[in-house]
Amino acid sequence: MYSPMSTSSTPRPKRMPPEQRERAILDAAVDLARQSGIAGLTVRTVAAAAGVTPALVAHYRPSMDAFVAEVFGAIVGAEREEVVAVGRAGTGLRARISCVVETLLDGDRDDVTLVWVQAWAAGARNEELAARVRLEMDLWQQDLERIVADGVAAEEISAERAEGVAWLLLATVDGMNAHSLVKWAPEDRAALARRTIAALLG
Fold it and tell me: Fewer beta carbons within 10 Å, N or C terminal of the chain?
């Protein structure tokens, strides 16, 4: 005999106001990307993570390329704000730069590093993601250049020597962190970074 209690079905998602539902979908996608990178973000995987139907994800985010770019920006933007705030706590150019670089290289940020590395690769085929990657890299450079400019104003470094420091620091951090994903990096990345900073700042 048929019994309705014997059937199984996926529970309907709890009704939420549109803004709350949209936020929940974004938060689920961010959590998923932090766990396994942005390469695995699809309508279906995000829907499963958010506990909603794929159609609902597509309703709120009709372009997956744009959504991946949004998720990338949310993750790396939050990290940038956090790390720059740590840097502001330092006193003097060398201390502030060291705080920023050593925080980025502390070994606890492999989830964000994976997001960056995958975004650089995926940006070759996703122009919206590529544009967001360029923006976030520009913002990182600007934040570091402001720190260096403060050092120039305080006569801690000459303007000539300061030129290009932000670029070189970013290249150092990005390279060592990317290499660390495949366990090909100095065991003490922070120590190498300190030597690099000393060489750059004099």
Answer: N
Q: For 11-56, where are the E strands, in sequence order?
A: none
Residue 42's nearest CA partner among 100, 34, 107, 32 is 32
Helix (H) or strand (E) holding 114: helix 110-122
Both structure tokens of 193: 């970074």
Q: What angle do CA 155, 157, 159 make, to 5 degrees?
A: 95
The Cα–Cα gap between 110 and 104 comes to 10
Helix H or strand E segment including 92: none
DSSP 4: G
Question: How far, in Å, CA of 197 to CA of 87, rounded?
Answer: 14
Asked if 116 and 180 count as a contact pair (C-beta separation under 8 A), the reply is no
11 — pLDDT class (breaks 50, 70, 90)? low
Cα-to-chain-centroid distance, residue 43? 21
**DSSP structure class, residue 89:** T
Cα–Cα separations (whole angstroms), residue 10 to 29, 51, 52 = 20, 9, 10
Could you give phi then psi for residue 132, rounded to 5 degrees?
-70, -35
Q: Could you read off the pLDDT of 53-83 as tens digits, one per residue? A: 999 999 999 999 999 999 999 999 999 999 9
**Gyration radius of the chain over CA positions:** 21
Which single residue is written with the structure tokens 């990338």? 72
Domains of the chain and CATH, by start: 15-62 (1.10.10), 65-201 (1.10.357.10)
